[in-house]
Queue: 4 jobs
Job 1
Amino acid sequence: MDKQKGIETLFRPNSIAVIGASATKGKLGNSVVRNLLDSGYDGRIYPVNPKGGEILGLQVFRSVGDIPGDVDIAVIVIPARFVLEVVEECGEKGVEALVVITAGFKEVGHEGQEAERKMVEIAKQYDMIVQGPNCLGIINTSEPYNASFAAGTPEKGIIAFASQSGALMTGILDYSLMEKIGFSKFVSLGNKALLDESDFLKAFGNDPDSHFILLYIENVTDGKQFMEVAKEVVKKKPVFVVKSGVSEAGARAASSHTGSLAGSDTAYTVAFKQCGVIRAESISELFDIANVYDDMGLPAGNRVAIITNAGGPGIITTDACEGMGLEVAQFSSDTIDYLKERLPPAAALYNPIDALGTAQPEDYTVCMEAALRDPNVDSLIVLLTPQAMTKEAETAQAVVDTHQKFPEKPIVTVFMGGNSMVYPRIVLNEAGIPVFDFPERAVNAIAELYHYTVLRDSLKDETPPKFDVDKDTVQKIIREVREDERRVLLGHEAHAIAEAYGIPVAKIELATSSEEAKQIAEELGYPVVLKIASPDIVHKSDVGGIEIGLQTPEEVEEAFLRIVENARDGRPKAIIYGVDVQEMAEAGKELIVGCSRDVQFGPLIMFGAGGVYVNFLEDVAFRLAPMTRTDAKALIDETKISTLLKGVRGEPPSDVKALEDTILRISQLVTDFSDIVELDINPVFAYEQNEGVSAVDVKITISG
């Protein structure tokens, strides 16, 4: 099945059947037919209803099989219990794509889930693609056609939008008509039975009518596929996403909403970052960004000029710029001289430009033209507050005229006020100038578009390194652990796996008696550390299950007996295999490297400050495996402790290269072995440059 070929048919059909078409106004089947006609679709429309007759001037066919010509798309709006039979009929007819608006599938429980599975099975048998079920439909303004039950059709534009929530789309459609935001494609994903966000993202990336991509998702069907597709698309077009289900309650709601399983929100944030997708925090932010891009495109850099007629808003805007990673531009001497000659002596000239409360439209024109001519300025924010002498509408027109004169640099406006700003905002909207009520939203929109350009340019076609490792040893240990009906590896087993992948570890052996513990200690050399060996005791210090710095055979013997007794008292039901005897590693900077396996995206690697306070300091960063050398460097640099690793106050720098190698080896390990669901190395001691690292305590849990 060629999904992209099917989506191309979905985007540009020559004929559409509406199965479940109705003559009754207000019913879904009537709304879909009406929207197709009202949108100006010039292909063939075939209403299908067992009653026959005529709907909105179109002949009605009793079944899809009765239609005399070919059918590219079938839009299905009938009760769920009849859908499977109709899907089979569509397959026999040779329909290429289905848009299943009907609800009542996996979102309602097991029975619906089974029906959805059968629907996909039938569709694949006939090589048909399926959008939905449980969706709003699809709109393509370029054809144009509207095969949805939305109350209207958006204006033609360059923004492609796909949403997992159909109801949200109807609200956004209404909002877009008011704000004059145009769309190229408007796609409701629904339950994503066959076509998902990755399929449409790839199609949007190849679509010549779409230049900016927005997604609202509650989950990702295949995390790795999404990342692969997104990395290619963002090289050509910006991709912005809102991911809901951030809170625990939200994740539960997302799951029940679409029958999906939401993954870790941290994994989503990391995935988006690694593949160049910008995550918006809200729907309003998403469309603020889209509005600015739609009208102004991308800024060439992060240098912003600010023009205002009031000091306070100018200061707020300046603070917002610096807080969001934008630079308040430094004007050239020519710009300063130009402004000095034309503005009142009391005006502030050095950015933000404060043209004073008496500023007239011509003063704004002087300021805007000066700023836009300046080579140190990449974009412009124009602020206006209603003062006694302010001419709001005329100033809005001055902005429009200036943009027409200098179209290459983005202009974003903030017209603060109520009734006095209604008509000026209309003037700006009609001319395609983004206008906001308050500065922060304007600054954020420019900042996020700039951040996209930085992220896009930072993406590299880099291959994760492959180290020479001992997979056979790892397979053997995991097999033996499974045979022992365990999921948690003992310390010596986890260390052996790390060692098999070239990770420097402190030597460790299992002792089943105090005599054996003394013998191992002699072989390893003093001092040594003793740890209880039990899959049921993860946090050993909580039960007195660890003793360090043991210097003599007598201390080892006493510690062995004490540790076993403490473990039995603290965890009476715990299975105890003995005590691990480990060489005591030389202390270094305490770090942690770990991994958990996300349900959608796979292995999520963590790095940060380690030791007993790791959960309190929370100085950690994340990346998804497999990782490149660039990923490993960025992972370390995101943490506060990275500053210490570079050397401070006369301390020598740590062996960051060895640390990168350790992270990359762990990335390779958890990529090679999907059995490993959790891995923690805490602490990892980092030594001085060229002295390496040492993994002191390794914990591994495998899947059941």
Note: The two ends are 34 Å apart (CA to CA).
Job 2
Amino acid sequence: MKKNNEATFFQRLAEQLRTINPSMWFFLGAVVVAAIGLFLLGPSSIMRGSSIESIEVGKIAETDIYAGKDTVYIDKEATQRKILAEERLVLPVFVVDENITSLVREKAESFSTYYLQLVNEESGGQEALGLLLRSRFPDFLQPEQYTAIVRAKLNSQTFIYVNDIVESLLGKGIVSVPEGVFDRFNPNYYELVRTINNQEESEQLVESEMITLANLGSRIEEEMDARRVPESQKQYVRLLVKALLRENTFFDQDLSEKRLIAARARIEPVTRFVSRNEILVRKGELVTPELYQQIKAIKSAIFVSDMGILLTGLGLLIIASFLGFLLSRIQDLSDFPSDRSSLIFLLLSMLILFYWILVVQNVIDAKDLSRGALFVPASLFAGLVSLLYGPRTGIFFCIISFFLTGAATNLNAQFMIGILLAGISATLTMRTARTRSMLARAALLQAIIQACLSVVLLLNQKPTPAEVFQSMGLGALNGFVGGSFIMLFLPLFERILDKSTLFRLMELADINAPVLKEMLSNAPGTYAHSMNVAYLAETAAKEVGANPLLARVGAYYHDIGKIEHPEYFTENQKGINRHDEINPTLSASIIRRHVKDGIERARKIGLPKEVIDIIGQHHGNSVMEAIISKAKDSTSETDLQSYRYQGERPKSKEAALVMLADTIEAASRSL
């Protein structure tokens, strides 16, 4: 059952593929060929050699090892050193715990109050007072110390000293320092955060002045000396202060880590540039671990860069393909015809131009890539397309070439603009030529334009005068050679593609053409009729936006099928009508045949397809009214199909105009 389902799926897929228009297969094939060229010859191509793959750590390099491509890579070791240096500037954050401070303050106040109360009351011996004090504040002092301070009979001034020193040291913060904190952060300073009146305040302090349990004794001594505590009281002040004080400032791990993260984020990676021919390891050198890591970083950077360039190129290729699809599908956007030969010609032209650009960007140095357009005959391709298919198709071709150039050169702006402007200028200049000889003048004009364009493209590079003249020479040569080859190739492609270009139509419009002279000699009435039809069709074509020259040429040749038997057509008859001597069916056959004979003769003398279509469609499938009237007079039953022309209805404006002009001219002669 599963095999049957799979077979059904593949059958449906095959049927759907068969329904795809063959022209679409050509289009998709061209896209695939372009993508293969981009992969093999593009800026990220696998064809560009590199010896990076042939290294191993700890071995001697057998050959010079070089990058093979211009690239920028991140020096991870240098970046890490920069990050560590920045981290060492970050201050560790310590926060004062106000709850602990309040508890110590309250304990100092209650102890001094209770002690003074006991001493002043003298309700018992010193041992008893010591026990009372110990029971009220257990674990505050050593057992013998309770009795000692009771025996000392400390006064209120002593406790003022104690409270004052405790308050001072708590305010500065007695810091709990985790092990290794200053190994990661700034070793000389720290930040102290405290809350005052519900507002956080921070202060940067010197690490050497930090108060910890380790140096608390010396700081107490400094505080007592600052207050000139009498020597007799120092031991008691020292004892009580040490007993009261505890760590109230702690390291804030989360806030400190956020500072580190922010510091790392500010660091730009350290980048190094390596040219394609730069030797990384010379032959005979040892590949050390450090050197291997550097080369590995370069290799990774090349891979990432190549992938980005390839994806960008494929994206631009898709855009160009989409524009090409619009060109072939939306007739209002261009003059592009729907025949397969034209599609193949345009696809091949684009592929040849694309591969030409790929080869140029591989051959010339990267620093000269901006002048790469001077080595690509964009004017030749765009000029040919515009002359064969019209200026709108030529402009469209230039826009597609612009995106193809971007894909082939990794968006080199000057290369892309150079191709675009050269193509557009060729499209416009070649359209100024009215005869083939005028194409030479257009080629000279194109040479001048491209010489000027080459200078414009160099303006942002501050070129030397020699470089300017060199670029102008290359631009002029490119434009002139492109225009000259257009003169050479145009007649060839006119014949191969069977296109009615302006120049070909102008040649056919010459009334001294052999077939027209033969018509004048053998069928003078038909010749005069054709001239009149040509005038009417050409005039009408100018009014309705059709091609006047094509309409005129089509009218000249629409009746060349009458040359063989001119006597059977009224415009050539002089009093004797041959159709009076034969039956209507034979008359219809003879008259109908002039369309077929005209098509055969047109093909024999090499007339373009548009003109042949006019010959075949100038009667359409209309009925021969004069012959059918004669048939009705001779018989009661008449088959209309026997008296119809067997051609197609007009499919172009020009063919319809020739048909109408032919009918009007014939009718005017019968009046």
Note: Residues 41 and 359 are 7 Å apart (CA to CA).
Job 3
Amino acid sequence: MIEFGSSMVFISIRTDMAWYRLGKPSKQYSPWYDTVLKTARIAISIITLLKEQSRVSRLSFGDVIKRVSGFSQDNKSYISSDPLAVERYVVVHGQIILQLFAEFPDEKIRKCPFVAGLTSKLEARHHTKWLMKKKKVLPRSEPNLNPRAAMAPVVSKRKAMQATTTKLINKIWGEYYSNHLPEDSKVVIASEVKDDDEDAEVETVLLEGMQKPHSVSKQTKAFSDDGEIRWEGGPEGKTSSGLLLYKQAIIHGEVVSVGISVSVEVDELDELPDIYYVEFMFESKGGKKMCHGRIMQDGGCQTVLGNAANEREVFLTNECKDLGLQDVKQINIVTIQKTPWGHQHRKANIVADKIDRERAEERKMKGLPTEYYCKSLYWPERGAFFSLPFDTLGLGSGVCQSCKLQEAEEEKDVFKVNSSKSSFVLEGTEYSLNDYVYVSPFEFEEKIEQGTHKSGRNVGLKAYVICQVLEIIAKKETKQAEITSREIKVRRFFRPEDVSSEKAYCSDVHEVYYSDETCTISVQSIEGKCEVRKKIDVPEGSAPRIFHNVFFCELLYDPATGALKKLPSHIKVKYSSGTADAAARKKKGKCKEGDSISEPDLERKTSNEKRLATLDIFAGCGGLSEGLHQFGVSSTKWAIEYEEPAGNAFKANHPEALVFINNCNVILRAIMEKCGDRDDCRMWRSVTSRSSHAIVRAMSTLMP
């Protein structure tokens, strides 16, 4: 990028990380730099020339070339006295010149005849250059001077190896290709049938395409239209609002009880019936028989699993609703399964799943209704599946855990201020006096310049302003605290980028500066909490995730003069928690057994315990593993890399990891065999025959 003013020209290079303004170039870059600088000066001279005209349209492209060829030799924009040479130079470097014209604020200059003429010259030159390439063709008798011309293309001697995978992954991708690339899918499947007969049944299924969502109404027990709805047994208690609770009801002759799953028809004709898990049943004040249920979703149609889901598995959700028992149409056979979590239960779970699948196939062959099962809670707002809350599920007590969660979310929207006006609650977070907070930068729009979008850069993004809460001010007294009736007096802490761009470039991103500037802001502008500590309380080399919202302060900044200096002794900054770590660090080597460890050390220890143990496949030199490790996400225990130089580099970068320099298909097959999962491994027979010795060697290197 080229920036210019009345007498200065700057050349900048943009990368994904930063902008670099070039100063004096080194020797090897000087020719490139000088050419770009000269072209920029020529463009500036042409712009100046056009601005001097009473009418910009008076000078065409040819007129400008003649004027430039008339420059004296002592002019920095001098090219040549020959107009043809000047035109050739301007057209060759036309892209740089057009860029400067495009950024010029005067629209008449941007759309002048010179720009139109230069653009057409560039297009014409492009076509001429294209034809010139085709103009000369070397005869076959003439030797080719390219030293690589006689070399044959490099072809790998290794035969391509299909990936080792599991039955589930093979099924998912097989269904994908059978739908999107049916011809390729048939070829792959046909070749595989020849190699491995035991997979013939699986491959036949893949040709059928994606599985259609099952219809609940065809595989559930439907009610007859005869009979009435009545309670079975007396009331078992009352809800918090005084409504009578019941455990069972008779609906058209069928028994419906708390803790089972039922289907409720929806209004849309194309929609499948909704499945609800009955939490409790009650009678409304009007005598209407009701039940409260949590919706259960089909894994393939209604969750992110898609075709990876089991057709018999449904998932409990936190969506709940009061339903009239007259709307209940069917009873679903859904088994609530309690599956133990952890690697030590993995094999037992695999055996149990196998037995369950065999039983389901047997029921299907006999024409019996499908038995569904539920063993996970689907929580899309948190982006995860959780184990079922068995201790609060289907108690029939009139209390629903999903309702409690919804009430807690609604409670977060309530703004509260305590009676002493020393703290307030905003969006579920409590803020007290002297707490440090993030404030929207637009609250200080009069004090910071507004950003713009220039040359592909979005310089309008501003970091949150860090402030300290000093006082809670009531604009008007009301019986109930309202967010619009309160303001917060805060002290502003400045970031390095608020001082200067040079300071921001050489400063720590966690550093802030104390100031005497105070102001009053609205409560709505607060974006969250953070901490400001002494620098000694923020250890170097910490994982970014641990101290993501922690800053340190050592200097005082004066916005009026722009001066930075050490904090005077009379200024007592009320830092966040963590100041006790300094004393603990001073006693290093002198503390007694049983002394508490520092907060950063404790946070780091906790973070290490929560890291995921990962296997890095196609590991390279370990850049991805290093990034995940630095951010506290995972710790790489194993790695697979095919190329020996890259594998050795990974060992040097991650000495704590066990690195396998081998084909990943071989290692994965060896790992699955070592873990007893050979039946679940999908490795092509041709690969197995070629790599059997390598698998044996790999298994001997694995840990017991």
Note: The longest strand covers residues 314-324.
Job 4
Amino acid sequence: MSQTITTRRTGRGLSALILPAFAGTLFLSAFLLFSVQPMFTKMVLPKLGGSAAVWSVAMVFFQAVLLAGYGLAHLLTTRLGLAKAIGVHLMVCLAAAVVLPIAVPASWGAPPERFTEVWLIGLFALTVGLPFFAVSVNGPLLQAWFARTGHAHASDPYFLYGASNLGSFLALLAYPVVIEPWIGAQAQARLWAGGFLVLAALIAALGAVTLKTAPAGAAREVRTKPEPIAARRALRWVFLAFVPSALLVAVTAHISTDVAAAPFLWVLPLSLFLATFVLVFRHRPLPPHGAMLAVQPFLMAAVVALTALPVLPLPARVALELAAFFVAAMVAHGELAADRPKPDNLTAFYLWMSLGGVLGGIFAGLLAPAIFTTIAEYPILLVAALACRPGLRRPSTADLRRALPWVAGAALLFALPVALHLPLGTLTDATLLALVALAVVLVVMARADDLRLAGTFAVTLFAAVGFAPGLAKVESVRSFYGVHRIAESADGQFRFLFHGTTIHGAERIRDVAGAPIDGRPRPATYYWSGGPLADVIAAARAAGGGRIARVAAIGLGTGSLACHARAGEAWTFYEIDPEVVRIARDPAKFRFLAACRPDQEIVVGDGRLTLARADRPAADLIVVDAFSSDSIPVHLLTREAIRLYRDRLGPHGLLAFHLTNRHMDLLPVAAALGTAEGLTVWSRVGHPDAAGEAEHDGTSAVAVMARDPADLATIAGDPAWRRMAPETQVAAWTDDHADVLAAILRRATGREPETH
């Protein structure tokens, strides 16, 4: 009898440990699953010029592997007995452990000019694919094991999905705040490998516990076939998972294109995405689903206003767009959670949900860049987010008749004038504000009818996206590295090259009378004569006795800088995007190269990597002028990059950085970098005069560095230039960590950098 009592006590003690053991293991599994994503993507980023598309493709890859992991979990749960399922999963974990720690192979070559996405997916598959696959199985599989333990909560294991996503959420928050700033990339990989081994041991222990507590015969028994899932229901699950997943990729690319491809900008949207799962897969969703449905129309109306009039500062704009994304994900995932099946279909539910996530990622990360020449997927997905609302589950003919007049009226008022390219740029500010306010009011007033709401939002957002006062669109080209838009001014006198939202070059193509301009084009935007870059080129010539033998310029744009070259000087441009090269070489678009340097040498590839491989004589001047929308790729502005540039410079060579940026103050970073590497640093923020502004000259911020202060004599003698002092609170960026957030805050506060 005493033995029976002891056995019962042991059983009760084991039962008390089951829930925390499963929750803790799922937490660790999710933490590893989502910490490895920014960790490895950051390792890969320098190979692709810091493009925001790297994270988009990474999310597609990780979602696809997650689907494969869910598929294996479903097979193990439905096709194998418990004992065999545990054995197979442990074998997968053992195979994954063999390839640890994770690292980018030194033998992996440079990315190709075409099919860059395929090259990148291959790199991910070879290096991180198997470990990520092994960890991705755990979410649904461990929940299914828990459902067989006989625990008091085993009948509804979905709450463990919230615990799993809490681990994911904390991993994403910890990475940019704790992990990236304080732990190097190689140390991160070793720690992750250690965490994986601990996880494998915990999985083995949970397998043993499940075998011990499961009903008799369950170890060998294959579970009975669950109730079939209706095709319509499964397709709705796929759609409800598709929209927020695709929107996650689109909004992340949209935000990071204008700022920087940096982990903290990757993890913000993804953290919000995961937080929605934590909140909706509770026994009682928090906040209530009805509250999310109520607030969504107001946020969508604000998105229309922001798109038409992008006047908010960056932090406020990002906050609004992330809020709209968060609520859209809450609505879609709330609908998913409300329709979740019984535990018998748990793994099937996760499989369908993961399929929708993968399809969404593929659409936004791979198909959209190939289909659209603009970022059209972002507004399309915002409209699709409203299609997730319960009122659009099965719209009737009566619903359509009721919504059509309202939506048609909004289309005639807003969308039609934009589609017909009417001269809206002539509207007064007051009229424009009134029209935007009317659009916002119409969207809000339509909120009582989900179909009317979606239609009204669609036509007003189309009008807002297409509204471009003062510009006549000529052409839009999209590549792996972003969207390049060529547009003319409304008066036809200037042609511009935009990348994202930033002008990267301008050329006067007609005079005031409308006659075409012939002869050598005048460099404008950041490259005007008398501007900071022109000063640096003059200083390099002075240091070289009147000429520059060799120049290396990272970043091509329209080729404006080439018109500063003189006969007998060897200039080489390094440009990562083949589309930019084609645009710059086409005289029908921009004539800088054709008129100034028709035989200009251009090396296609990431500037840092190609410069490192180049077997060339030392340069007298290196100009780093590579932009992704309004931001310099971070890997071109680190101590490791500075050392490479310094090694490629001649004894009296100069190193210049073009650091004009609306969102980040980068001059203090340049001061910290130059000082850390023993270089003298000077800077100038140049402002054109009224005549220059009329020719589209722009403000230009440039930092220049030299080994010997004497080589900057002409710069030092110009009062417009300031010698930079390193600021104690600004650390030099490295490949392991760059404090992008601090640079954003400095710009937001408008603080001036220190000088000697």
Note: The chain has two domains: 13-390, 532-749.
